Amino acid sequence: MSGGPLAGVRVIEVGVMLAGPYATMMLADLGAEVIKIEPPGGEISRQVSDSYFASLNRNKQSMVIDLRSAEGRQRLGELVATSHALLVNMKPSAIKRLGLTYDSLKEFNEGIVCVAMTGFGLEGGDDPAFDYVIQAATGVAAMTGDPQGPPTLPGYSSADNSTGLTAALGLLAKIVSGTGGQVDVSLQDVMLSQLNYRAAAFLNDGIEPQRHPYGAHSYYVPAQLFSTADGFLALFITHDAFWAAFASEAGIEGFATMAERAARRDEVLALVSAALAGDTAVNWQQRLRPLGIPVSAVRTLPEALEALPQTLVTAGEFRLVRSPIRIGGYEPEYRAAPQLDEHADAPAHSS
């Protein structure tokens, strides 16, 4: 499988910043040929930093095409004629104006799969839809953070990344179907979908999400962060066997069932907090993991990267995190992100 499971699949990307480029990079890592179409001057994320661009665009080709010109649209049509899919993340009006929909491109290739990534859907309007805005609009920010504090946003672009993965799935599903057509993926829909059990609890049982201290889970107790003698510990007790093992090690009696622990949340958390304060987070991790209990000391990102060197690769001059998809018999090459217009002279036919 030296060419990768997606060898022979050609994808055109008209992507900006994060969501679109991340989607196609996942495909490129699996062997797809990804041609990144950039405007004159380059895609805007090149202006953020070299490492930012490298983290989202390895294993791709770069062509500068002015899609606003007749010549550029003709060049795009030539590429579409021999490609499996086109993925774009822009405002709906720009996608339509530049002719990046299936209705506009099927004249070149009826089998082309066109994936549009937008904030609210192709017919949802042009309101700005950056990651943090979507987290605020879908309830994610409101249910995150300390209950006595303000709403909180995660420390990374969860909406953009999640939408990128979802779009890649939709693109592949449509290719597998063997028919061309339009795929419509929005950040809003993806984030609401990922609130699955939270949304279901409200829609069916009238239970509105509540914030708990230390990010505590709504159903499971104890399942949250705890302060220790040194550092914080994530402990996630989801069933009674985990509790029995933990309680024995921590010297806690009672509360044998999940229902009892949930009903007496405050009592349980007080006992667990007192017990965990007696040792460090690292030591608790070393004590509890051999018992099969889900637990981890809270690490910084540098600490996590240092502890997990097997997840790191080199692409050109940059060290990056590898693809999360590991397939037996295949290892991505991890080529450097392309220079602007590096592949301008590449033939229109697929390699």
From TrEMBL:
InterPro entries: CoA-transferase_III (IPR050509), CoA-Trfase_fam_III (IPR003673), CoA-Trfase_III_dom3_sf (IPR044855), CoA-Trfase_III_dom_1_sf (IPR023606)
Key word Transferase present: yes
GO molecular-function terms, A-Z: formyl-CoA transferase activity
Enzyme nomenclature, EC number: 2.8.3.16
Top EC class of this enzyme: transferase
Pfam families named among the record's database cross-references: CoA_transf_3
Record keywords: Transferase
UniProt cross-references to PANTHER family, sorted A to Z: FATTY ACYL-COA TRANSFERASE RV3272-RELATED, SUCCINYL-COA--D-CITRAMALATE COA-TRANSFERASE
Full protein name: L-carnitine dehydratase/bile acid-inducible protein F
Organism of derivation: Mycolicibacterium aurum (Mycobacterium aurum)
